[in-house]
Amino acid sequence: MLKIFKNEIIKMVSSKKFYLLCALLIFSIILMGTVVGPRINANNFMIATLDGMVMKPIVPIFMVLVIVEVLTEDYSLGTMKFSLMTTIKKSDFIIGKLLFIDLYALIFMAISFIFSYIVGTIIFGLVGKDEAIKNLVYNIKCYGVLILPLLSFCAMISLIALLINNSGAMIGLGIGIVVILSMLVFVQEDVIYFIPGGGMYAASYINKSGPHSIFLFAIIAIIYIIAFSLISSVVIKKKDIVL
């Protein structure tokens, strides 16, 4: 498991795609900073960015691209065979892959947090100390609430990627799922609590009264993560090696 995880990290840092995706994410944050509306200010820029371009739809779509490369392409191109033909258990293999995918998502979220703060500070300036601490705690809370739902979305897409061997089809399907999730949340807000990845769009729900606690996002996300991971382990055990 750890060997697979380390190998994926080595591949990530040596890949141009990783740096390109990070650069595009940073650029999108800067772009949003240049087109801020009248309601955006120093207090809400980070959350407006998170609830805007970052999660609708940049990070979810980027994660689809990452998962397709890590799972679908790795299998369809035959490179997965070298790992599956070793003494590494297939269950450990998929766990290592899923942990790496989660790490990728966390990196994107960390970049979003850091650069949203930097861009917001440059554009709007610093606020008072007490206000700055209050905003920081609130922003950390918002990002924390969204992380587990994002990982549940990644677990769902990873499972689908194991079932579909065509990269183009998987990218199209993954992006389609992102669009459908966004539409479902827009049409019926209550579904945000119960669908895989629904909590990715929950930034505007933090500190607001609603029919359910925000902790429900984490509980539902953990259930989905465990379920999709277990099913993925079963799928990979039955998967033939591409030679």
Describe this protein's structure.
By secondary structure, the protein is mainly α. It is 75% helix and 0% strand. The chain has helices spanning 2-13, 16-34, 45-76, 81-84, 90-124, 129-163, 167-187, 215-238. The chain crosses the membrane at residues 18-37, 57-77, 98-123, 143-164, 171-195, 215-236. This is Membrane protein.
Brief account:
The chain has 243 residues and is mainly alpha-helical.
Provide tags for this entry.
membrane; transmembrane; 243 residues; single chain; 8 helices; transmembrane helix; mainly alpha; Membrane protein; 0% strand; globular
Number of domains: 1
Taking pLDDT < 50 over at least 5 consecutive residues as the criterion, the unreliable ranges are none
Give average pLDDT, whole number. Answer: 84
Helical region count? 8
Counting DSSP E segments of at least 2 residues, the number of strands comes to 0
Largest sheet: none
Q: In percent, how helical is the residue content?
A: over 70%
Protein structure class: mainly alpha
Order of helices and strands: HHHHHHHH
How far apart the termini lie comes to 22 Å
How much of the residues is beta strand, in percent?
A: under 5%
Shape: globular
Protein name: Membrane protein
Pfam family, one: ABC2_membrane_4
Keywords: Membrane, Transmembrane, Transmembrane helix
